Amino acid sequence: MRIAFFGLGYHARTGSSRFFLDLLERLGEVDTFFAEADVADVRRRCAGFVEDRYDAIVIWQLHEAFALLSGRHPNVTFAPMYDAMVRGGAFVWKPSWNAAKILCFSWALRAEVMRRAPLHAHVQYFPDPAQHPAVTDFDTLRGFLWYRRRDIPPEAAFALTEGTPFASLAIHDAPDPGHDAPWNPAAPPHVATLTRTAWGEDRGAFDAALRGANVFFASRPLEGIGMSFLEAMAAGLCVVAPDAPTMNEVISHGANGLLYPPGSRAPLDFGDARRIGARARESVAIGRRRFEAAVPGLLEFVATPFAALARTAGRRGILLPARPATAAPEIGIVLDGTMPATSWILAPAAGDAVAEPAMLAAALAGAPPEAVAIRGHHLVLTADGAEHLRRTADIAAAWSRLTAGSAEVAGFGMPAATLLRADALRRIGASPPATPPELGDLLLRWHDEGALIHDADEVLATCPESDDRAGWIALVERRAGPAVAGRLRDAFAVADTATAEAARRTRPARIALDCVAAADRLSPALGRLAESMILGGGLRRLRSMLAGKRARGEDGAA
């Protein structure tokens, strides 16, 4: 098989797509074409490309390479990166891309792709921890931030660590183009030593600063795969990241990393950094095994023409790795509140879809025998048919976040995705929880009693979107008092306002992208022209020019 691979020149320099190229070479001969994200540069650098010479074509983020294709090739795979597909808070998509198979490395990307219904597969990449020496020295805390984006400046790391003594904090001062901004190089009182590095003839200073750290601050507000923070987790560092894709698709807050609301500067608790770092390395090792199991299916997805896959793939696409058929484990489903006569039970609500037996069996197999509950992650099904991943969080961390006035309540899990030991419920005279707040109450009770609650890294249910705010407020009021419940009620109101404001702010971007998609439906060439004008700054420059003319006219009239 002969394969053409198109990628960004930046990725050729960083090697971040190298793992995928190595996989493609298992299928056959691979010709690589790298260019900048510009159609003219793609045409110039890929002048020797002839579509008909290749059995398969892979486009890695560089969607400008579609300009070289006729739209008739039977086997094109497009691997967009989530962070690169978000413009002005809206998601970029062109209908002409639906002729390709879409490879999603992010759950958030998959959710957006599902709305547009092309043929797609989802897989999560994890590095090999064996290639990263383990960090075990947490006698002092030593932080590292690569200052790349104005969204996460050094001041953010200073604020997030406030109140916790840090022996050192290294800032690699190398912002992406357009993100340069001054910052105060003086160490805050809780940081003993602040160092500052920059790119030199080699990356020696960067590597030395990173090797000396045990706390890693994710440097970008969104990621496509997130190589840098994944490698930090693989080495056992305590990773601190915005609660956004793809960081929150790998990190469970307080368990294998620390998440904070994007833009927040509220201090975090680093008291369990050693345990969190160790859990991070373990979770990456589990993810690596899952990724390696997915590789055969991943290569088959790339090698198989679109038409052949379309006959078997459904709306949910292909989830990798595929799970072999497994006999259902002994798990009873609670119906009308009646406890079945089984060792383990699930209590799904109407509309919830429980995971296939193989997922449940994997969750059971990994749990210690003394566990009273096994929590899995779940997917939230929205009204438009998209599925969004919601991970569990450490129970104590989730409760602390809730009582601090956060509107984030997903970390406790869902009844449909939580296996409960029936005799443990009977022992305390509890009924199976019917709602997330009831599950949270039960888990907090067991946690306070020291019972073992096991967290499985499996997606165990898909649940329709629901609003359980009243139940959460009632739970917080009962456990923490009316003042704390009032804070939570206010947090929900603030979240509603923020959501409405975000929708208002992103409306121009959504309209612009709808215009690009409409032009693309008429002709891919017209879509590229619209993209160049609308997203490439043409209209912005025209508006500025017209505004300047109006201003000059008003000055003249005055």
From TrEMBL:
Q: Which InterPro entries match?
A: Glyco_trans_1
Quote the Pfam families the UniProt record gives. Answer: Glycos_transf_1
Q: Which residues form the Glycosyl transferase family domain?
A: 203-264
Picking any one GO molecular function of the record gives:
glycosyltransferase activity
Q: Under which name does UniProt file this protein?
A: Glycosyltransferase
Which lineage do the record's taxonomy fields give for this organism? Bacteria, Pseudomonadati, Pseudomonadota, Alphaproteobacteria, Acetobacterales
